[in-house]
TrEMBL record:
<feature type="transmembrane region" description="Helical">
    <location>
        <begin position="280"/>
        <end position="303"/>
    </location>
</feature>
<keyword id="KW-1133">Transmembrane helix</keyword>
<feature type="transmembrane region" description="Helical">
    <location>
        <begin position="152"/>
        <end position="171"/>
    </location>
</feature>
<dbReference type="InterPro" id="IPR000515">
    <property type="entry name" value="MetI-like"/>
</dbReference>
<dbReference type="InterPro" id="IPR050366">
    <property type="entry name" value="BP-dependent_transpt_permease"/>
</dbReference>
<keyword id="KW-0813">Transport</keyword>
<feature type="transmembrane region" description="Helical">
    <location>
        <begin position="177"/>
        <end position="195"/>
    </location>
</feature>
<protein>
    <submittedName>
        <fullName>ABC transporter permease</fullName>
    </submittedName>
</protein>
<keyword id="KW-1003">Cell membrane</keyword>
<feature type="transmembrane region" description="Helical">
    <location>
        <begin position="45"/>
        <end position="67"/>
    </location>
</feature>
<feature type="domain" description="ABC transmembrane type-1">
    <location>
        <begin position="113"/>
        <end position="303"/>
    </location>
</feature>
<dbReference type="GO" id="GO:0055085">
    <property type="term" value="P:transmembrane transport"/>
</dbReference>
<dbReference type="Pfam" id="PF12911">
    <property type="entry name" value="OppC_N"/>
</dbReference>
<dbReference type="Pfam" id="PF00528">
    <property type="entry name" value="BPD_transp_1"/>
</dbReference>
<comment type="similarity">
    <text>Belongs to the binding-protein-dependent transport system permease family.</text>
</comment>
<keyword id="KW-0812">Transmembrane</keyword>
<feature type="transmembrane region" description="Helical">
    <location>
        <begin position="117"/>
        <end position="145"/>
    </location>
</feature>
Amino acid sequence: MSTNALPPAPGGGPATAAAEHEVLEARTGGGFWHDVFARLRRNPVAWIGAAIVLLFLLVAILAPWLAPYPETALPGAREVTPTHIPGPGEIAGFPLGLDRFGGDVLSKLIWGARASLLIGVISTAFGLAGGMLLGLIAGMFGGWVDTIVMRFVDILLSVPNLLLAVSIAAILGQSQLAIMIAIGASQVPIFARLLRASMLQQRSADYILSAQTLGLGRGKITMSHVLPNSLGPVIVQGTLTLATAVIDAAALSFLGLGGGGAATAEWGRMLTYAQSELAIAPWLAFLPGLCIMITALGFTLLGESLREAMDPRTRAR
């Protein structure tokens, strides 16, 4: 259903700096973000989620120094036989064992953290940017513009996220860039609808009526007041989406859409080559799967804690 655009401000005259400051004070509501971060600091679940995310981010950033071997190195190729793959602790220097090709599993996991998180972060940023652009246009102009934008978003939403991502990745070819674009595109409608809904809710707030009374134009009100105050739910969703992006990246790589060879270190690709070795080397699937699960858990805990901290029903307690 389409909505009307922001009504023109009466008078049309420019607002003074003091008047704008008054509107900003009304909008911030006595330190909203300060209260949110204070609640996060008191929430042990938020600390656990932040610690997990920070740990994997540090591993990804410091991978060149933490990994015992380069990403594509196969230092244990001579130790692997068709019927036996050395497991964790069997050979000195390979604490988590080897893979089918003789690669050090610990090094692969460390390098895989960099690849998986990079795909997750960039794809989420892409989806966030595209979704916010569509949501901003729909929420700002309303009317027929809103109708056209939201019908396009509805079409995207009618296709399951993973199916849409697989289709786009298949069209673009096998590469990490294709996976980033595919996952990001599947997230665009989620952010678009969320921002639009948040903006529509903010437009009826008292501080918007005050801004219109002061003579601020539609663009000024939207960009300076409505949009900043509508970003809370989008930020929460972005944090939660990082978890699904990491999982989707692993799923697409598992399906062979990630590009790279067998020596490429990425958690989803590690699962791809581990499935044929489950009978003799189950740890090859368990370890990258565990990394994916813990990373997704960290982002989920952090996102849910942020959602709870920003929920007015819990903040009022």
